[in-house]
Amino acid sequence: MADAEFGKADRSQYPHRRPDGSLDIDLTSGKYLKLWQGPNHPGITGNMSVELTVCGDEVVEGKTHVGYLHRGFEKLMERRTFIQCFPIVCRICVPEPDFNEYCYAAAVEELAGLEIPEKAKWIRALILEMGRINSYLMYLGGQAGAFGQGVIGQWTTYARDLMLDRFEELTGARIYHMFILPGGVRDDLPEGFDERMEQTLQEVERTLDDVYDTMFRNAVFKKRAVGLGYVDPALVDEYGITGPVARGAGVARDVRKDQPYLVYDQLDFEPVTGRESDVYARADVRRRDLLMSVDLIRQILSKMPHKGEVMATLPNVLHWKIPRGETYIRGECSRGEYGYYLVTDGSGYPRRVNVRGPSYTHAMALLEKLIVNVNISDVAGLMVSLHTYPPEIER
Amino acid sequence: MPEGRGYQRLKSRTSLEEILEVATEFERTARDFYTELAPKVSKQIRYLVEELAEEEQRHYDLFSQLRMRADIVEQIKQSVETPASDRRFSDCIHLPELGDHPDDQAVLQYALGREHAAMEQYQSLAESTPGGPIRDLFAFLADEETQHKNELEKRYYEVVHSGGV
Amino acid sequence: MSVRDLLSPFIAWKHLFREPVSIRDPFNREASERYRGFHQNDVEKCIGCGTCEAICQNGAIDMVIVEGVEGIKTRPGDSGLRPRIDYGRCCWCALCVDVCMTSSLTMSNAYKWVENDPDKFRYIPGVDKKEWDNVKQGYHRPDGHRLNAPERIEMPELEPAERIDSFVEIVGGYSVEQARLEADRCVTCGICVATCPTHMPIPEYISAVRDGDYERGLKLLYDSNPFSQICGKVCTRRCETTCAASHEGDPIAIRWLKRHITEQVPYEKYRDIIGGPLPATGKKIAIIGAGPAGMTAAFDLARKGHEVSVYEARSHAGGMTRYGIPEYRLPFETIQREIDLIVSMGVEMHYDTRVGTDIQMQQLQQDNDAVLLAIGLWLGRGTRIPGADHPHVYKAIDLLRRIRDGEQLEAPKSMVVIGGGNVAMDIARSVARLQKQQQGEINVTLTALEDKAHFLADPVEIKESIEEEINIIDSRGPQECVSDDQGKLVGLRSWKVLSIFDDQHRFAPTYDESDEQLHPGEWIVEAIGQMSDVSLLGDALTEKLEWDRGRLQVDDDGHTSEPWLWAAGDCVKGPDIVSAVATGHSVATSIEAMFEQKEAQNA
């Protein structure tokens, strides 16, 4: 390709491919440069590397490398009793740990034939929505920050901290809540929780108003985000794309609606979708989804039963054996479908636990596809737009 | 048996020393009785008889020492202000004839009977004596015997009301 | 993109006029009410069961020996250990708090702790003093949040109406399903093992029930207790009084689980599972009394290959279990199975042979290398109140023996029992059954000096007696066995006992003499205590032996002051089957040690 044509031709055809499909890149030519981004990375929460091959300031190939965070949770759980797995699952996803607690607990309950009290379901849904808000607030700061806009992170961190206060008074911890355990939840809502939660929600809404004005109605952000990282809706099924990435492409995929769990069938909501399927559209889907979570929390608190148990009767957990079986439990987290596949063999230990973190598909396969022909400076913003939490890639 | 042989002997005494002398004498007799009984009973329960002899010896010592003290009146007065109450548990227990081979229960019954009799005797002496140091002394002696009886009742319960489930 | 997109971001400037939202003094921010902070432990409430250590998935908790701290002592029901927590490992999940059997372990809401020495972050809550020791806020296990089932699986039993006119066994036994559920409740702490006189491996055999491996369970039982079938039915189960689960729930039904194991293994397989005796050694031992102590020692010694002869005055072995415990609690068949098993180890039984009459002690001494005295407590104590020498005033133990011996007693129309122990309950309930069978009416009054709270009897016995229409009148001091003009016994006169013990829990009764009652009874049965009949020893040996307050003096191994004579069971330890088994074991060990010592000297 002649240099004169550069910039006019179909960029996705560049660089050329050899007949065997591999990229025609000659590193000795001096035209290309290998560049590592990571593992400490501006684009994501946690450690992950992208091995970039750049030509000028354009990425021609990006290979994702994970493994910096591997702690072997799935294997660890095979040597722990069912109750002992409960405190470690939250660590699989730091910013939004509650889905691990929920999916694990629900999987154990299903295989053990345990029915949890009604009120526990409502409290679980409340916690999951609170976690979603936190996760999105963190994302917004990261997304803006990736394009050089530091102030958004300051604001959203403040709002997130208020929500952490609510987590602290409800669950007894700020980050790793360890509150949803097989059988229900640990405790009822504390006295006066509803009012304090309402104040927090109003503060979140106020913060989002400011975020909307300064981030979403911002020429710089739009210039960088609009058109970047386009995901063809056709790729959604091909790549196993879920959550806001899919919804940003106009595919109304939301487990809360598609396969309602807990109390979502009793809540009034519609999945938030976008159209443009670029970084901006995904950010906006998440912003609106966050506001929907605010609304869902209000619905949950008003519809929740006032009285009732929050914990089922458990057998002695020290000798808890669960009959042979397997199940897959899923839920809609802020990044998409979160799932736990649990196999039991009648012993006191899980035979196999497999965690499906949505980042796995988004941040590895999809990123490798989207990163080609992106400007180096946009790589971070692109990665953030896929909302990657490396710990859930490396269970 | 409040009006027994000791009663008359004591009734006729007029000084504290004399009364204590007679009381001490009673304790000595009791001690000697148990000391002589000890080798006769089965070795299994000999400990009980020996302990009773020791207890009588303690009483004997107590009364002898009291007799020597200069502040005897003051001592007695203090003691009689807080009298022990008779538990009455063993009142219904017969005073057995201690044959050649008494068992532990019989020995205890006998001891209880003795203490009971002594207690009643001193009580009745105290009641029939006008107020003053002598009356106080009788009351004191009655109290001592009551306490001893109560202690024996505890022993009785622990020995007899045991071995059951 | 529009002009608005250029201007809108300037809204950020309004934040210049906002109050700062950050916390000015983050070091003094108090955590929330239920925050999971540093641990607290009420060391006096803690029993050192180690369940916290067992559940901790981080291995952050070690149970350690604590010495010289008030309130912590190794004793029945308390291991004397306390949890030490390593904050290098702790993840604050609070499962230890959730599972704590006594709720002694909690968490304060303190979360700041600065230290230069990293080892300091490993400490024993409640022992190593910390500033948050008395902080009220923090995580405590919420009500209703339990990680172990607090309620016992109910044992199927005959209803009072079904059982009152027969001597059929009341307790039915757990099904496999029920037993597993009950076994599941055990936290495997092992505090019971220390309490059990014969230290049965309780958590291990309960785990055999959980696994459904009953043969393993049976082996564990008989390794420590050859009276497992009997103890499975009538053990005094002190283990259950110290069970960790009893602090906030029902204790594990340890006795019933033992019974369950013995019921699940076919009897024909017992002998193979337990194993037979070793080759003969030629050593001879005589055992006097075929009760739990004597037969346990016989079992142990016969399995070692020694020649064991048991001399039993009565026609059947079993001692108090055979002649003292009513059939509705312990059927003959159970005893017979137990005895047959022990005898099958090569024990020679001499029934109807009373030592002192049919054979002399001196003879036994001459013919054997060791002699064991396991003669029990067969003499009933009497009140010796006026009228107590009436022929219709009985000792409970004598009557029970006659009933168990198959004698057809003609029950009295009415009966008064004196005593509040298990023997009193046994005779009351046995005669009530005879009354029901013979007359259709029950008229049994049970009186005791003690108030019900201080009855020595098992609370279950009291409950079942009441169900069986036994009229229990507590706090009554017996005064006289009253007869009418014709010399016919009419009842027991008693006084009301106002209080019975002083503050040192020693006997110091007070009476209300105005509250006098006559309890009608054609019979009066005394069940106040028992003692040993040591007349078989003879005067010379009695004089030679050392005694300890009326009982034979023995060392920890049951060895008397005579080198050839040991004593075991109720006659040294007081009445209790499982204690008798324990002393039987220790005597056997002691005799064995003596043999080995002699052999070493000869070699």
Sum up the structure in keywords.
heterotrimer, A: 395 residues, alpha+beta, Cytochrome-c3 Hydrogenase, chain B, three-stranded antiparallel sheet, 8 strands, B: 165 residues, mainly alpha, Ferritin
Draw up the topology in text.
The complex is a heterotrimer of chains A (395), B (165) and C (603).
Chain A: E1 33-37, E2 49-55, E3 58-65, H1 73-77, H2 82-89, H3 98-112, H4 118-146, H5 150-171, E4 180-181, E5 184-185, H6 193-216, H7 219-225, H8 235-238, H9 243-248, H10 255-258, H11 279-303, E6 325-333, E7 336-344, E8 350-356, H12 359-370, H13 376-385, H14 390-393
Antiparallel strand pairs in A: 1-2, 2-3, 4-5, 6-7, 7-8
Chain B: H1 5-11, H2 16-37, H3 46-68, H4 72-80, H5 104-128, H6 133-160
Helix pairs in contact in B: 2-3, 2-6, 4-6, 5-6
Chain C: H1 3-7, E1 39-41, H2 51-55, E2 61-65, E3 81-86, H3 95-99, E4 105-107, E5 122-123, H4 160-163, H5 176-184, H6 191-195, H7 202-211, H8 214-224, H9 228-234, H10 238-242, H11 254-264, H12 267-274, E6 284-288, H13 292-303, E7 307-311, H14 320-323, H15 332-343, E8 347-350, H16 361-367, E9 370-373, E10 379-380, E11 393-395, H17 396-404, E12 415-418, H18 422-439, E13 444-447, H19 459-467, E14 471-473, E15 476-483, E16 489-501, E17 507-520, E18 523-526, E19 530-531, H20 538-544, E20 547-548, E21 551-552, E22 565-567, H21 570-573, H22 577-602
Parallel strand pairs in C: 6-7, 6-9, 7-8, 9-22, 11-18, 12-13, 12-18, 13-14
Antiparallel strand pairs in C: 1-4, 2-3, 3-5, 10-19, 15-16, 16-17, 20-21
CATH topology title of chain B: Ferritin
Strand content of chain A is: 5-15%
The helix/strand class of chain B is mainly alpha
Helix fraction of chain B by DSSP (H/I, runs of at least 4): 55-70%
Global mean pLDDT of chain A: 91
Tell me what the CATH architecture of chain A is: Orthogonal Bundle
Q: What string gives the helices and strands of chain B in order?
A: HHHHHH
Which runs of chain A of at least 5 residues are low in confidence (pLDDT < 50)? none
Largest sheet of chain B: none
Helices and strands of chain A, in order, run as EEEHHHHHEEHHHHHHEEEHHH
- What is the CATH-assigned architecture of chain B? Up-down Bundle
Number of helices of chain A: 14
